[in-house]
Amino acid sequence: MRFNSDVPFNAVVWTLMVVIMLLWLIPLLYVFSAAFSSADAILSGDMLFIPRGWNIEGFKLIFQYDGFGRSYLNTILYCMLTLAVSMPLTLCAAYPLSRGDFMAKKFIMVVYTITLFFGGGLVPTYLLIRNLHLYNSVLALVLPGVSVWNIIIVRSYFNTRIPKELQEAANIDGCGDFAFFLRIAVPLSSPILIVIGLYALVGQWNSYFGAMIFLDDRAKYPLQLLLRELLLSSDAAAHVNSWAGINPADQLTALMAMKYGTIIISAVPLILLYAFIQKYFIRGVMVGSLKG
Asked: Is the CB of residue 209 less than 8 Å from the CB of residue 57?
């Protein structure tokens, strides 16, 4: 009987996959269970992965929290603007770098690659935003959404999935470079567009640091910055508009349930989105991973 060399490899891969899945799943299950458990069960440690003392009071308080609805709409707006800005700029930057007749592409790729390893730092970035008069502006959050890594991925896609013969045939038929890019290259790039769109969307949805640095108007706060305020602020109870039906002694424990509920509400949209576009995302990652 011959030894199958794939068995040890598959065993190691499956073990690693199960461990990684548990590392992701266990905290999520705990947060979900805590969001529907009573504060007493959370504090006493009786609750772990199954809700104890079923309670949805925290979810009711979320919508009573000052600015929650506005911050949710702000996050959706910032995500849409990020997609509208980052995707066209990424495509326009990646396409010339995939062309063999673009003389400066090697130099530009070196400059782009350097930015992956070295950045200007927080202070120069803050000064730049102030000097451009973008402080406390939506553009301060949207413009940094263009990623060099996404540009490299799209460039690789153009190199491997858009044949040069197709471009030559289009040129013979009188199709110019700009028309070829808009009418042929971009429509054929839908798998990679989904990938970079999801990257940009997730990055903006989960971002709070940029808003914390560049925004001082609470009406412009995104959801994640409001969630940070709720989790870390000592006066979060003061931002709840109504404590109807809750005794003052129970307000702190109710805030705990509200924190877990906010985490669930902020995570569910992305989980559902990924479930719907998973097959397109995997396909785009595979075709964009080939280096040209």
From this structure: no
Interacting residues of 141 by C-beta distance below 8 A, sequence separation 6+: 78, 82, 204, 207, 210, 211, 214, 215, 222
Q: Are 152 and 196 within 8 A, CB to CB?
A: no
- Domains, the chain, with CATH or none: 1-55 (no CATH), 59-292 (1.10.3720.10)
pTM, two decimals, is 0.78
Identity of the amino acid at 71: S
240 forms bridges with which residues in the sheet? 65
Query: Other CB atoms closer than 10 Å to residue 61's CB: what's the count?
Result: 24
Q: Which long-range contacts (CB under 8 A, 24 or more apart) does 182-191 make?
A: 185/95, 185/158, 186/91, 188/161, 188/162, 189/91, 189/154, 189/157, 189/158, 189/161, 189/162, 190/280, 191/157, 191/280, 191/283, 191/284, 191/287, 191/288
Which residues, in sequence order, are bridge partners of residue 29?
A: none
Per-residue pLDDT tens listing for the chain (292 residues): 455 667 787 888 889 999 998 888 888 888 888 777 776 676 676 777 777 777 777 777 777 777 778 888 999 999 999 888 888 889 888 888 888 778 888 898 888 888 888 877 788 888 888 898 888 888 888 887 788 888 888 888 888 888 888 877 888 878 888 888 888 888 888 888 888 888 888 888 888 888 888 888 888 888 888 888 777 765 555 555 555 555 555 566 667 777 777 888 888 888 888 777 776 666 655 555 554 4
Q: Assess contact for 153 and 196: CB atoms under 8 A.
A: yes
Residues contacting 265, CB < 8 A, separation 6+: 59, 62
- Tokens 């075709």 -> residue: 287
- 285: which 2 tokens? 């990652």
